[in-house]
């Protein structure tokens, strides 16, 4: 009888349910919420690039009536940005990017700072040394 109970419990295994979440902008599969809305990575990056510039810089060729989906989301940036904003994406949640450094300036800074912070031992090693020469003709002993 114990065997039949264990078989019944094994037959009742939980079925894993995979919930497929769609991007609120284009309908592509999405996992996370970005800028306040569940969206895919491509829409996240699109909003990050274009959200701060605003809709004034973009123009729609079709009077703002474009359908945005996974197949044509790249065609009209204006309508895609409007759909991002209407779905609830917030420009305030975009972090400012780090300023890009010029590699040549960084090298110059490292070179100048290394010369200024040289230790006394390093500066002694870099100085030329004076060598005292002994004349072979002079005797070491005065009595000789």
From TrEMBL:
Keyword line: DNA-binding, Metal-binding, Nucleus, Receptor, Transcription, Transcription regulation, Zinc, Zinc-finger
GO molecular-function terms, A-Z: nuclear receptor activity; RNA polymerase II cis-regulatory region sequence-specific DNA binding; zinc ion binding
Entries under InterPro entries matching the protein: Nuclear_hormone_rcpt_NR1, Znf_hrmn_rcpt, Znf_NHR/GATA
One Gene Ontology term from the biological process aspect of the record: negative regulation of transcription by RNA polymerase II
UniProt cross-references to Pfam families, sorted A to Z: zf-C4
UniProt superkingdom: Eukaryota
Nuclear receptor domain sequence ranges: 20-96
UniProt xrefs under SMART domains: ZnF_C4
UniProt protein name: Nuclear receptor domain-containing protein
Species: Rotaria sordida
């Amino acid at each position: 009888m114990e065997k039949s109970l264990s078989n019944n419990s094994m037959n009742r295994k939980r079925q894993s349910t995979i919930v497929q979440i769609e991007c609120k902008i284009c309908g592509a599969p999405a996992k996370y919420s970005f800028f306040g809305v569940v969206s895919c990575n491509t829409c996240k990056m699109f909003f990050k690039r274009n959200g701060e510039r605003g809709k004034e810089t973009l123009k729609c060729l079709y009077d703002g009536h474009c359908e945005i989906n996974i197949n044509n989301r790249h065609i009209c940036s204006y309508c895609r940005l409007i759909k991002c904003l209407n779905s609830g994406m917030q420009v305030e949640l975009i972090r400012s990017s780090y300023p890009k450094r010029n590699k040549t300036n960084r090298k110059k800074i490292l070179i100048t700072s290394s010369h200024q912070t040289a230790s006394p031992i390093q500066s002694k090693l870099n100085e030329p040394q004076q060598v005292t020469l002994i004349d072979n003709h002079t005797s070491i002993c005065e009595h000789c």
